[in-house]
Amino acid sequence: MERKVKVAAVSYLNTKPLLYGFRDHKVLRSMELTMDYPAKIARQLIDGEVDLALVPVAIIPKLKEYHIIADFCIGAEGPVASVCLFSEVPLQEIKRIYLDYQSRTSVALLKVLVQEHWKLNVEFVETTGDYQDLIKGTDAGLVIGDRALRQRLVSPYIYDLGEAWVRFTSLPFVFAAWISNRPLPVEFIQQFNDANQIGLNNLPMVVSENGSPDYDLTTYYTQNISYRLTPAKRQGMQKFLSYLQ
Ligand SMILES: C=C(O[C@@H]1C=C(C(=O)O)C=C[C@H]1O)C(=O)O
Fold first, then answer.
1. Its function (predicted)?
2. pLDDT given at position 1
3. Quick one: 98 and 49 in the same domain?
4. Which of 128, 143, 169 is the last residue of a domain?
5. Which of 4, 48, 165, 183 has the most CB atoms around it within 10 Å of its CB?
6. Are 70 and 179 in a shared domain?
């Protein structure tokens, strides 16, 4: 028997609908699943520690070989809610932006928007640990995931990067997709896709067993995150990747 496929997924609330159907699913017989934040699993896929991961699409150019495996992604067709530039001052007054160490795609997206869309003259500051307390005065911060849903309750100015991208390009955006660093058996891919779909067909169950004190998850899963990797999303992804050359 072939060895088990090592799979890594993002540990944020946005991934729960995709992972819900994996419990008790027969695909689990041929895979093992670990979870971490996006920049970590990106590193694991690049280094070959895992075979398949829900990785930030911005790391695609770093992979020697890549295969987009499933029909699902972490995407958006408008405001995504959990990828935002947070600030105490309006966009034009921002001087420095703290970048989220957990992100790869959103950091790259922010830089594209700052240069090409908003045309701001700002300094970017890398982070390695908690930095949300540093978002003060003219120092803004990019925050993603569950921490962004919390930051929404704190910062007076919120610039949603999903919304900004759609305004800029008229295309949807893909933050993360299931990508493998080697070809995988067709039968595995079929079962993997099937498992991804189950939670999306049972969103009330997914919402009831997760819950967030900060944001309405039904809204998040149905109005903000868009999970289908449609042709338009692939087009948006190619457009985004063309800026990273
Ligand atoms: C929408 C989101 O998409 C995420 C953003 C990522 C990134 O910026 O690299 C990677 C994975 C996604 O889970 C989010 O986390 O809020």
1. Catalyzes the dehydration of chorismate into 3-[(1-carboxyvinyl)oxy]benzoate, a step in the biosynthesis of menaquinone (MK, vitamin K2).
2. 57
3. no
4. 169
5. 165
6. yes
The alpha carbon of 176 and the centre of ligand 1 are apart by a number of angstroms equal to 6
CATH code of the domain containing 215? 3.40.190.10
pLDDT digits (tens, 9 = 90+) for 182-191: 999 999 999 9
DSSP E strands in 44-109: the ranges are 52-56, 67-76, 83-87, 96-98
Ligand 1 centroid, distance to 177 Cα (angstroms): 10
158 in the same domain as 92: yes
Question: Is pLDDT of 146 > 70?
Answer: yes
Q: Distance from the CA of 58 to the center of ligand 1, in angstroms?
A: 11
For ligand 1, is residue 104 a contact (CB within 6 Å)?
A: yes
Nearest to 178 by CA among 25, 74, 36, 103: 74
Look up tokens 């991961």; give the residue: 53
Contacts of 131 (CB under 8 A, 6+ apart): 98, 141
Q: Ligand 1: which atom is nearest the Cα of residue 54?
A: 11
Integer Rg of the chain from CA: 18
pLDDT tens, 46-102? 999 999 999 999 999 999 999 999 899 999 999 999 999 999 999 999 999 999 999
- Residues 42, 69, single domain; the answer is yes
Q: Is the pLDDT of residue 124 over 80?
A: yes
Binding site membership of 16 for ligand 1 (Cβ less than 6 Å): no
- Same-domain pairing of 118 and 160: yes
102 lines ligand 1 (CB under 6 A): no
The residue contributing the CA closest to ligand 1 atom 14 is 145
The residue whose two tokens read 């600030």 is: 87
